[in-house]
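Continuing the series of single-chain predictions for the mutant panel. This is the parent chain; the variants come on the following pages.
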Amino acid sequence: PCAANWPPLLAAADAKARGDYSIITRDDGTKQWAYKGKPLYLWVKDSKPGDRTGDGFNNAWRIARS
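Parent structure:
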């Protein structure tokens, strides 16, 4: 259920890491964006740019800020 609600922020094959943003390889071989070494995820209930309904969910998930 967690992966269904919080899908990974996948990186394109040609994506390049920059600054505090890096690319990690997941167990299944796909590439995922990370910020300061921490994997980044999307929230399934955010449907359009600017939505932030997952911020603070269960007092655990936070928006990544640079």
